[in-house]
Amino acid sequence: MLKIKMILAGVVAMLLVNGVAVAQVVSGRVAPNFTLTDSYGHKHSLADYKGKFVVLEWFNPECPFVKKHYNSGNMQKLQKEYTARGVVWLSINSSARGKQGSLTPQGFNQFIAEKAALPTAVLLDTKGKVGHLYGAQTTPHMFVINPQGILIYQGAIDDIPSADVDDVAKAQNYVKLALDAAMNGKPVAVATTKSYGCSVKY
To answer: CB pairs under 8 A, 24+ apart, for 176-182?
Structure first.
């Protein structure tokens, strides 16, 4: 029988599924620190960006839901707008080697160049350690952290869970709403939603 229990401890909630602990971060609490290497071989720690807004974007270049946001230019538009305003945008890939979306560092750089994307960095989480720490379930799965290191939003990029490019223009973008509110000193109206997309290929 499936046994599920929630245990709140520190900055994460531990979800026990058949006795296996899976971490999930909690909106309104401090986002856990991590260190990953980017596609150019440089290390990035979340702690390095204290004092800045940070967006974590879990992505998989081969996922239809990710393609929706990149082929429409939606993700690039968000990256351009907010990095220009000082936001740090970290695109994270947690695909295990040999699974969908697992590319070489050069492959990720080529994807970013072809899509004219503008993340601050593409971080490689091949072992899935950070993905599991944050409870990233889908691509895309979005997280927004404020300058004090508090997680202020996590979940879907928008409110239309489809892979249809035409839906982008009609959708309410949760990431934009969270950033605009917080950057203007206002509370984030929606702090948690259910993400949608392809499952992260751990």
So the answer is: 176/78, 178/144, 178/152, 178/153, 179/53, 179/55, 179/82, 179/87, 179/144, 182/53, 182/144, 182/146, 182/152
pLDDT at 80 (0 to 100)? 98
Indicate the SS3 state at residue 6. Answer: strand
Taken in order of first residue, the domains within the chain and their CATH numbers are: 24-199 (3.40.30.10)
How far apart (Å, rounded) are the C-alpha atoms in residues 11 and 156? 21
Q: What is the largest CA-CA distance in the chain?
A: 50
| pLDDT at residue number 134 | 97
Taking the C-alpha atoms of residue 148 and residue 9, their distance in angstroms, rounded to an integer, is 20
Averaged pLDDT, 52-58: 98
| Separation of alpha carbons 130 and 57, rounded Å | 12
- Tens of pLDDT, residues 83-133: 999 999 999 999 999 999 999 999 999 999 999 999 999 999 999 999 999
